[in-house]
Design brief:
mainly alpha, 1 helix, 88% helix, 0% strand, rod-shaped
Length: 42
């Protein structure tokens, strides 16, 4: 039972980290897209 709780905690922490990482990656992608759109094409 104790290992199950520890495993659940680790999984929850990993899910949080993955969620934060994907959110950050999405924000960076939006930033890059904005820069590309703002940059006049030569």
């Amino acid at each position: 039972m104790r290992t199950a709780r520890r495993l659940a905690t680790v999984l929850a922490a990993a899910a949080l980290m993955i969620g934060a990482f994907t959110t950050q990656a999405a924000a960076v992608s939006v930033d890059i897209a904005g820069l590309v759109v703002e940059t006049p094409q030569v």
